[in-house]
Amino acid sequence: MATGQIFSKTTQALFYNYKQLPIQRMLDFDFLCGRETPSVAGIINPGSDGFQKLFFGQEEIAIPVHPTIEAACNAHPTADVFINFASFRSAAASSMSALKQPTLRVVAIIAEGVPESDAKQLISYARANNKVIIGPATVGGVQAGAFKIGDTAGTIDNIIQCKLYRPGSVGFVSKSGGMSNELYNTIARVTDGIYEGIAIGGDVFPGSTLSDHILRFNNIPQVKMMVVLGELGGSDEYSLVEALKQGKVQKPVVAWVSGTCARLFKSEVQFGHAGAKSGGELESAQSKNQALRDAGAVVPTSFEALESVIKETFEKLVEEGNIPPVPEVTPPPIPEDLNTAIKSGKVRAPTHIISTISDDRVTARAGKDLVSSLVSGLLTIGPRFGGAIDDAARYFKDAYDRGLMPYEFVEGMKKKGIRVPGIGHRIKSRDNRDKRVQLLQKYAHAHFPSVKYMEYAVQVETYTLSKANNLVMNVDGAIGSLFLDLLSGSGMFSKQEIDEIIEIGYLNGLFVLARSIGLIGHTFDQKRLKQPLYRHPWEDVLYTK
């Protein structure tokens, strides 16, 4: 692997499995570093395409969304980093697909718990094809002033405090993402800061090792010293010991292996990471620290002494003239999001509609009559609004009747690029359930002769909640599944009749009936309030190619 630098100020990445916060953090870091182009070239959401709106400094940009890895690579041939935010269930397959793309050079696997057999296959393929894997179970890595992966280094405030907006002289590698943040801060206090930092991940089989990155840092002229933070368990640190003994590393290495407290326990201890497990004597932190010390690394007597040892090593290099002064720069301020500013009381924003019922928008604002307003409102009902009741009933029934396990159903839908109707909510979550759903389920348990479809929908919800906190059953899913139970449990409808009722959109008719009453109310409300023509603010529209 050795070679040298893997990131630069022009590096661009493809982001797999859209997550708004880590992507926005990457873009904010780009702006902080003065990059001319965003580091995220495209987003891959299986089965989806279009755009996602995000901010690059003050400017709102639209990042393309692609349905497959192949499509994204074809559209963005210069993007050579793949950031994989897939769950541990699908991380291996998507990572292997990425490794096989000729344009992708580095694959970062964020998920923890990737099966070890899968991890071994990924590592074998990557090494045979000169690719770099960071992870699994990693937060990623950062090249100061140039590029960072996902949530690496945390918040913008922490990044500024750690001086990661401009390059320093220290190469850092660790197994732990959380401890990386701690060490970035420590190193910034006593040196000129990080040049590049990598968290290889805490799983038993990391895609790249501590020594892989130390040998790489050794070939980067801007890196003048290295800091390594290992941990008990496994033998990764000993490959670094061998590299030091063989003279492959010519720059100072400050190292510490955490977990010395394990000896205080009478039995084997499992720490936070899968790989941080106290085994035999050679895997102990004490043995590793001594081996590193004997091989020539600068090893402190305790973790508390690590900061002073880093400082002494750095100051010695400065005195010898090996490290020129790094010019300080003032990073630009990151614009604050409107919602955050409103919540903190810093700004106030006007509303655009007055209503005494709710905040729904109706065409009465265009001066139309009742029937025109009602019809235009009804025309908005479709798969994304209201039609989910029929679809939820249709898909839940098909999956249950075919005997599909919930995970088979969900993963099958994902492969087809279809979101599970009746699952997911913009506001509600695992800890903030929809009261309407709870009341409907409680009523059904008390009065329905059978709730087999509802219970199946709940099992599906349990599985989807293991993926994301907001993938709860919504009221459409509850109504759809309960109508199936009502129809099948009443004994009045044959299977063919039930299938026909669902197919012709019968359930959606009930939604249309209820929505009509609401639309009529909104129409009269807007007329009574004598509201003028509504014009949507032009600055609220993002024009993109």
UniProtKB/TrEMBL annotation:
Report the EC number(s), separated by commas if there are several: 2.3.3.8
Q: Which domain of life is it from?
A: Eukaryota
Q: Name one GO biological process term.
A: lipid metabolic process
Top-level EC class, please?
Answer: transferase
CDD domains registered for this protein in UniProt: CCL_ACL-C (cd06100)
**Gene Ontology molecular function, alphabetical:** ATP binding; ATP citrate synthase activity; metal ion binding
InterPro entries (UniProt xref): Cit_synth/succinyl-CoA_lig_AS, Citrate_synth-like_sm_a-sub, Citrate_synthase, Citrate_synthase_sf, Citrt_syn/SCS-alpha_CS, NAD(P)-bd_dom_sf, Succ-CoA_synthase_bsu_CS, SUCC_ACL_C
Protein location: Cytoplasm, Cytosol
According to UniProt, the reaction catalysed is: oxaloacetate + acetyl-CoA + ADP + phosphate = citrate + ATP + CoA
Q: Which residues form the ATP-citrate synthase/succinyl-CoA ligase C-terminal domain?
A: 173-298
What the record says about family reads: Belongs to the succinate/malate CoA ligase alpha subunit family.
Assembly and binders: Heterooctamer of 4 alpha and 4 beta chains.
**What protein name applies here?**
ATP citrate synthase
* Protein species of origin: Triticum aestivum
